[in-house]
Here is the input.
Amino acid sequence: MLTVLRHRTYRHLFGAQIIALVGTGLATVALGLLAFRVAGQNAGAVLGTALAIKMLAYVGVAPIAAAFTERLPRRAMLVSLDLVRCAVALCLPFVSAVWEIYILIFILQSASAAFTPSFQATIPDILPDERDYTDALSLSRVAYDMESVVSPLLAAALLTVIPFNVLFVGTAIGFLCSAMLVVSVVLPSPKPAKPRGIYERTTRGIRLYLATPRLRGLLAIDLAVAAAASIVLVNTVVYVQASFGLDQRATALALACFGGGSMLAAFGLPRILDRFADRTVMLAGASVLVAGSALAIFLHSYRWLLPIWILLGIGYSAAQTPTGRLLRRSAHPEDRPALFAAQFALSHVCWLIAYPLAGRVGAAYGLPVSASLLSLMTLSAAIGTSLVWPGHDPDTLAHDHDLLSKDDPHLQSDDGGQHTHPYVIDDTHTAWPRNQKK
Here is the structure.
């Protein structure tokens, strides 16, 4: 898996991702502790609302940003957005009111909503080999898990010598270092695309996404992931410090267990994906999430919380890591930025549903009720995935073009009105074939 790091450009981008995410992880721990200081027993509700605002920024900004950034130099855009995030992070230590948290989180995450899809869409352009890209996805999953493993452990150590709000300075340093690494490489420019109006460019990725059966299944997977992971990401601080009466370091350790489970799965996934289809692996991950979220309903002690969080981390990684492979095979290169932005926005609609449910229901009716509802949502989404994503899902499909003339250049061959090639939704193929040949 580490052989992909021989590519200099990817190596620098991966380093930028790691550094920025470690800083973000410090901010995640600090934000939870800040919410607890400001709101006490209602910290889950405050944090849930803050994370819901984050999701609103992701859902609203990502498609709009994709419509404009396909015409901008990627390196300049990514560096500028890193600097914006750095500036906002430097403001967070001075927060003293809940409304200030909400405003700064919206600005910070709006910049992230523009940054992340463009960053993700760049990776398949610099790693055209399928195995290299699969390894890169697993390494990327490991990098994201460092936010849940290394950052909380580092935060736990730092909290012994500094106030928690100083952790936000680490976030700012992470974004600054990320910008410096992006500057150090030359990135491919976006593929030239057909000129389109702003509305069409804004909505194109979502239309391509929802017209593809495997991606509708991915959206159901995203809902399962959001529902189960919200139990961890929203309510860990409430479980550990309010229910169990433990300290901040115990909260950081619990989050590290979740990330550790996810990292463990990510390291094994490249070999697993060589043997099993993406759909099989992702449904297996969703099943693990169903089991873990069900166990959380009966959670009454810290010593049981840690292994359940590890189990949820394993399911979280297995269900999410192959996402980039699905997106790559479901669009032409020029449509990838729009499709990655659509995935970013639609997946965060799922988080927008799950985060407030975890926080508000937990605060109003108790953690077992919140876990029960989220577990039921996870189960329903996993069942929905198996229904909307066909088990037979080849890249190459035989299909008709009733509206094209026989001499159209697209029709390379004709077999009773059908022809065959790798099929994705585009201007020529606007709907998925209903009758697929197996």
Observations:
- The chain has 15 helices and two strands.
- The longest helix spans residues 8-39.
